[in-house]
Fold this protein.
Amino acid sequence: MPTRTKKRAKAGYMISAVAELYKLHPQTLRLYERVGLLKPSRSLGNTRLYTDSDLERLDVILTLARDMGVNLAGIEIILNMREKMIEMEHQMEEFAHVVQQELSRVASRTDDHPPRHAIVRATPRVIRVPIREG
């Protein structure tokens, strides 16, 4: 698309290129920014510049609005929940990784070296935790 490449600025796409690409009026993009759904960066001359990440977010916004009939307040709630879910997913992956490392560390210990201060000798039990990939 020549328009998209021609209007490309250092940090992203200008509002006119994005509006044309998505068949939107520039005022619609300004509205999305005003209500907090989009946060384009600004050039030194204060021109809105939309990054690829902004365009991905705009894709989601337009799918929710056009295809699913969700209003702006609903879109905001959905986007916020989506971000929180992604953050929680990353935290769970980190936790699972730490647990897996600890389980591996415990499993690698041999029974030849029981704890010196133990009253009763205990055999460590290894519990396998499945890691969901995905």
